[in-house]
């Protein structure tokens, strides 16, 4: 049972959140539980959607963003986010099962993406305390400083969604994927 109740429908959400939830529903076909939960605070929903939209305009491709989300969700043992990003990774980013298993282990079967996922996992595990060698490794793989900043911001956004889902015990509305098991 969720520890923070969410609006059952968009019309049950605070008025200031309703238009944002309708936009999410238009884009995804549904308003997932995470978005309805966060809608209890229109400011939090606006911030989450704003950062997500801004990062989608960045230079990291969607598959790499999903890879990072999977790595961070596994580190934080967030069932909701693992479930959502496994679904999104497969259905929107075109990742296969083997790739998503690797991502959850902080790796990738794609050479360039591997450096981003490895770096993101290190940032998440070490709470930002990475060394010069970590920065040099991601740079050698072809990422510039702007992309490194985007990787860190994706980690931060995913940590936030992991934490809010764990705090609220959000009911999973995607096919369930548990931490520490194969996708």
Summarize the structure.
This protein is mainly alpha-helical. It is built from nine helices and no strands.
Weakly predicted, low-confidence segments: none
**Cα radius of gyration in angstroms:** 16 Å
Distance between the termini: 24 Å
* Quaternary structure of the protein: single chain
> What does the overall shape look like?
globular
Number of helices: 9
Q: Can you offer a commentary on this structure?
A:
- Keywords: Oxidoreductase, Peroxidase.
- This is Peroxidase-related enzyme.
- One of its GO terms (molecular function) is peroxidase activity.
- Pfam families: CMD (PF02627).
- This protein has 9 helices and no strands.
- The protein is mostly helical and 183 residues long.
- Helix 4 packs across helix 6.
What's the topology here?
Layout: H1 15-28, H2 33-38, H3 42-56, H4 62-75, H5 79-91, H6 97-104, H7 111-125, H8 132-140, H9 145-168
Helix pairs in contact: 3-9, 4-5, 4-6, 4-7, 4-9, 7-8, 7-9
What key attributes describe this structure?
9 helices, AhpD-like, Peroxidase-related enzyme, mainly alpha, 183 residues, oxidoreductase, CMD-like, globular
